[in-house]
Amino acid sequence: MSRALVTGATGFLGSRLARRLAAEGWEVHAVARPSSDAGPLGPAAGSVVLHRPAETPEAFDAVLAAARPDVVFHLAACFVAEHSPQDAARLADSNLRWPLLLLDAMARAGVRRLVNASTAWVRLGAGRDEPASLYAATKRAFGELLRFYASAHGLSAVTLELTDTYGPGDPRRKLFTLLREAAARGERLAMSPGEQRLDPVFVDDAVEAFLAAQRRAAGLPDGRLESFCVAGGRPRTLREVVEAWRGSGGRALEVSWGARPYRAREVMAPPDGPTLPGWSPRVGLEEGIRLMEGARP
Ligand SMILES: NC(=O)c1ccc[n+]([C@@H]2O[C@H](COP(=O)([O-])OP(=O)(O)OC[C@H]3O[C@@H](n4cnc5c(N)ncnc54)[C@H](OP(=O)(O)O)[C@@H]3O)[C@@H](O)[C@H]2O)c1
Description:
single chain; alpha/beta; Rossmann fold; 2 domains; seven-stranded parallel sheet; two-stranded parallel sheet; globular; binds NADP nicotinamide-adenine-dinucleotide phosphate
């Protein structure tokens, strides 16, 4: 039996990944905050060993000693699209300080394989290499930490730069939630001009990408870092994505396009970097929306 340690297992993607690994016969350990709600793991919570370490090296050493993972899937993160002054410390804490405790404990325990969730926003695109947001900047900074542990401790990691994900049971206040809420209230939704091109990936496809990344990480020599894009495979404008959502089940929703400005650092096109070998998305947007909305009560 293979053994995995998952961070972010109480989140949207991590809970599905942990459930999928458990269903495939992995011994799954999850490392979470003392305050984390295990609810999203659902019935699979019984087959996932949940650790809630204090934020000390000793506590993380104890997690690694108990889990003895072949691979760590690192999905825990704090996301904010545009940060407020209060968000800066939370971003640094969740996306750098907390996972650094884990990376350092991995080095002491000799755990050398990591699959890392990052974001397509690490580059603004259109020739601009800078991160699109402070959130994305912390994700890039975590990449520098990986470079140190790869060089000094032989860590090998496959990083996935994910575009937006969506799917059934998504609690996050992202695009489809906002559309659904506005439609339910019969409100006209104020949006940007809507010409930014998105390429959302269905949650099951994202989970498959993490599994493909794990297989790849397992075959890497020590000290190797790789990054790949994970996207839905068919970029469309925000207007087209909203149209696809409206078209699914004939949903009534009025949108005022251009009533809001673009974000100051809007990513206008999906990433065009290398895609993850051995993986391709299976669920197109229309089918994904049907699966997502059909699963709602
Ligand atoms: N979903 C997307 O569209 C998307 C797109 C690009 C990249 N990603 C990346 O994919 C990963 C998973 O995303 P998601 O959407 O599933 O996230 P999510 O639903 O917001 O879940 C975040 C997870 O991270 C945990 N976490 C946050 N701060 C933590 C801390 N300080 N210590 C320990 N755990 C902490 C949360 O635990 P609590 O339960 O305690 O809050 C939760 O389990 C993230 O790394 C994200 O950056 C996601």
